């Protein structure tokens, strides 16, 4: 049976966005985040982080730095009963100073290459799933699949947030933070394919 997932942006969604964060000591969970992740896990959602990491292409930190923080994040959450199914990242940039990452790829959000990869690798049904992020580029998957999404807080200009609040994108809603998005998701009836023939 296909699984349902929460596609999570990282910086600005799980942790406070500090430009090009890579040090564990700089990582700060946004209040309510771990409780929300635990509730979503308990409700049967796979948690999948998809993040742009152009700091690698810019030479601000290395892929090894990113992976060390990623490993720390997984272990920290696991110690609190929260299992991340997978994390995916894009290290590229079309005009990257670091030559090996200089490319126009299909994985840098708003491109949806990493979402498509996750959907394949974990047999995810997008129509049972949600994307959550603080930028519209985190929600592109909602425009081409049945995935629904939440735009968080005030990173985007007010005009874009207003459009979301007006319902211009039928599958994208506004929420103050991950905690609020999780509450709305958990209050929504879950479509269970196993029940659909009864
Ligand atoms: Mg973000
Ligand atoms: Zn990429």
Description:
The chain has 198 residues and is of the alpha/beta class. It has one domain (5-191): HAD superfamily/HAD-like (Rossmann fold), CATH 3.40.50.1000. The protein has seven helices and six strands, in the order βαβααβαβαβαβα. The protein has helices spanning 33-42, 54-57, 63-78, 113-121, 141-144, 158-165, 178-187, and strands spanning 5-8, 46-52, 86-90, 130-133, 148-152, 172-175. Strands 3-2-1-4-5-6 form a six-stranded parallel sheet, sandwiched between helices. β4 (130-133), α5 (141-144) and β5 form a beta-alpha-beta unit. The longest helix has 16 residues, at 63-78. It is globular. The model is unreliable at 193-198 (pLDDT under 50). The chain binds magnesium ion and zinc ion. Magnesium ion (MG) binds at residues 9, 11-13, 17, 133-135.
List strands and helices in order, with pairings:
Blueprint: E1 5-8, H1 33-42, E2 46-52, H2 54-57, H3 63-78, E3 86-90, H4 113-121, E4 130-133, H5 141-144, E5 148-152, H6 158-165, E6 172-175, H7 178-187
Parallel strand pairs: 1-2, 1-4, 2-3, 4-5, 5-6
Helix pairs in contact: 1-7
The structure holds magnesium ion (MG) and zinc ion.
Zinc ion (ZN) binds at residues 90, 92, 105, 107-108.
What descriptive keywords fit this protein?
single chain, 198 residues, alpha/beta, Rossmann fold, six-stranded parallel sheet, 7 helices, binds magnesium ion
The CATH topology name reads: Rossmann fold
* Nearest-integer average pLDDT: 94
What overall form do the CA principal axes indicate? globular
* CATH H-level superfamily: HAD superfamily/HAD-like
pLDDT < 50 stretches: 193-198
Which hetero ligands occur in this complex? magnesium ion, zinc ion
Number of helices, where a helix is a run of at least 4 consecutive DSSP H or I residues: 7
Based on the coordinates given, report the CATH architecture.
3-Layer(aba) Sandwich
Please tell me how large the radius of gyration is: 17 Å
Indicate the CATH class.
Answer: Alpha Beta
Helix percentage:
25-40%
Percent strand equals 5-15%
Q: Please summarize the sheet with the most strands.
A: 6 strands, parallel
Strand order, largest beta sheet:
3-2-1-4-5-6
- Care to count the β-strands? 6
Sketch the topology as an H/E string, one letter per element. Answer: EHEHHEHEHEHEH
How far apart are the termini?
17 Å
Whole-number count of domains? 1
Structural class: alpha/beta
């Amino acid at each position: 049976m296909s699984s349902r997932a929460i596609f999570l942006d990282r910086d600005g969604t799980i942790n406070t966005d500090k430009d090009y964060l890579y040090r564990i000591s700089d990582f700060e969970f946004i209040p309510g985040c771990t409780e929300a992740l635990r509730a979503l896990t308990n409700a049967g959602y796979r948690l999948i982080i998809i993040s742009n990491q152009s700091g690698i292409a810019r030479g601000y930190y290395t892929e090894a730095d990113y992976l060390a923080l990623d490993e720390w994040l997984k272990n920290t959450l696991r110690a609190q009963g929260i299992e991340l199914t997978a994390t995916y990242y894009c290290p590229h940039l079309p005009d990257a100073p670091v030559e090996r990452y200089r490319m126009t790829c299909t994985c840098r959000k708003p491109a949806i290459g990493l979402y498509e990869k996750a959907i394949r690798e974990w047999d995810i049904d997008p129509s049972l799933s949600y994307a959550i992020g603080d930028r519209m580029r985190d929600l592109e998957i909602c425009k081409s699949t049945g995935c629904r999404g939440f735009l968080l807080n005030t990173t985007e200009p007010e005009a874009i947030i207003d459009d979301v609040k007006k319902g211009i994108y039928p599958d994208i809603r506004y929420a103050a933070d991950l905690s609020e998005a999780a509450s709305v998701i958990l209050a929504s009836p879950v479509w269970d394919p196993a029940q659909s023939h009864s």
